[in-house]
Amino acid sequence: MTPGQSVVSPLAVTLGEPSGVGPDILLMMMAAPEAALPPLFALADPEMLAERADRLGLAGKVRIATIDRPEAAGDAPAGALSVIPLAHRHGETPGTPAPANGAGTLEAIDRAVAYALAGRASGIVTGPIDKKALYDVGFKHPGHTEYLAELCSRQTRGTLTPVMLLTGPELSCVPVTIHIPLSEVPKQLTTELIVTTCRITAADYRHRLGIENPRLAVSGLNPHAGEKGAIGHEDDAVIRPAVEILQAEGIDAVGPLPGDTMFHGPARARYDVAICMYHDQALIPAKTLAFDETVNVTLGLPIIRTSPDHGTAADIAGTGKARPDSFRAALTLAWRMARLEANAARIALPA
Ligand SMILES: NC(=O)C1=CN([C@@H]2O[C@H](COP(=O)(O)OP(=O)(O)OC[C@H]3O[C@@H](n4cnc5c(N)ncnc54)[C@H](O)[C@@H]3O)[C@@H](O)[C@H]2O)C=CC1
Ligand SMILES: NCC(=O)COP(=O)(O)O
After folding, report:
1. EC number(s) per UniProt (predicted)?
2. How far is the CA of 130 from the centre of ligand 1 (A)?
3. Residue 191 contacts residue 167 (beta carbons within 8 Å)
4. pLDDT tens digit string along 225-278?
5. Domains of the chain
6. Would the annotation count 145 as a binding residue?
7. CB of residue 305 inside a 6 A radius of ligand 1
8. Ligand 2: residues within 6 Å at CB?
9. pLDDT at residue 234, rounded to an integer
10. pLDDT digits 0-9 by tens, 152-176
11. Does residue 142 sit in helix, strand or coil?
């Protein structure tokens, strides 16, 4: 290390549901000779990974190095995949999600978060979980996003509002309400929630992504943003006041904009991030425009967390058909964010 250079800890990777494509895409990335991956370690079952590598014909290309702590990731031979084994079982037939894997899936997430909170990992990159399989074993959170906020709030000792950002080369967008039924959206959408979500988005764009004054485009909820109150009242009664509050605070926000006309090319050029009112309003355009490159980022946390935009893809797990691109983009972005954070910390140090 040269004087003044920051040490950035490796990224902690979790695989999500092991019968999905999480193991496949990690192994495929490691096997790609052109891959210049950031330093990382996985929390996983090394035997399951070895079996999957065998199934995918990658056994000769990926060496698995079992380690016992994050700090040992740097000691593994060049190109080897460093793996910290889990205490719980975490292996299953590809394509067949098993509730019995739930404890291992959650153990990996819990330990990755603990390492990140302790500064022993510079961030976490999570593979996709099978949400229903976890619900069936008593998991009470809709997804990672909400669970990570709960885990981190145990350390920060205050409730955290997690914000889901989907970011890709063509579009970045945030759903204000996340994993709730569509029928619940108008009930749970409040001016306060929109304002809070936008404040967190603007703040994290600044300190996590290096964009000083992000331009926020806030969508409407109803067709044509309510058509001046003729097609729904939420746009004028709930969303517009939120935009006015944000503008008064100096946040560059416009809206409510009709949802059907804010995603075409020239419209997208006018903002950095679209603030959408519900899950599919945000995720349909993001995944349609760039399914293979879009990354899911959780804002509003004291740790860095990214994830590929896709799910477990159980229909192609273990076949070699999964594309690792979104996972690779998630690793690259997490590493960029980690280096930005390390540099900012270094600049903030007293001389
Ligand atoms: N971050 C997370 O943990 C996420 C988890 N999920 C979970 O994943 C499960 C399955 O969700 P679905 O809606 O079916 O979405 P999905 O993304 O798993 O699959 C949708 C379609 O896209 C294909 N696909 C997905 N990823 C691919 C890849 N890397 N390469 C090539 N093709 C790919 C699949 O084969 C499938 O045909 C659900 O339990 C859902 O909750 C979904 C999204 C994110
Ligand atoms: N559709 C996006 C998604 O489900 C991601 O959820 P999370 O597990 O990252 O919270």
Report:
1. 1.1.1.262
2. 9
3. no
4. 999 999 999 999 999 999 999 999 999 999 999 999 999 999 999 999 999 999
5. 1-160+301-351 (3.40.718.10), 163-296 (3.40.718.10)
6. yes
7. no
8. 129, 143-145, 283, 296, 307
9. 97
10. 998 877 889 999 999 999 999 999 9
11. coil
Mean pLDDT (the chain, rounded): 94
Structure tokens at 193: 């929630």
State the Cα–Cα distance between residues 117 and 128, nearest whole angstrom.
21
Q: Are 90 and 52 in contact (CB under 8 A)?
A: no
Residue 69, marked binder: no
Q: Is 140 annotated as a binding residue?
A: no
Atom of ligand 1 at shortest range from CA of 325? 29
CA atoms within 13 A on the CB side of 319: 10
Q: Is the pTM of this model over 0.80?
A: yes
Tokens of 71: 């700090």
Reply yes or no on whether the pLDDT at 77 is more than 90: no
Place of tokens 């399951």: 48
Identify the three-state secondary structure at position 297.
Answer: strand
Query: Which of 170, 150, 43 is closest to 105 using CA atoms?
Result: 43
Task: Give dist(CA 338, CA 256) in Å, integer.
Answer: 33
**Backbone phi and psi for residue 141, each to the nearest 5 degrees, phi listed first:** -110, 145
Question: Ligand 1 centroid vs 278 CA: distance in angstroms?
Answer: 19
Residue 179 annotated as part of some ligand binding site: yes
108 in Cβ contact with 15 (< 8 Å): yes
Give 23-65 pLDDT, tens digit per residue.
999 999 999 866 688 999 999 999 999 999 999 999 999 999 9
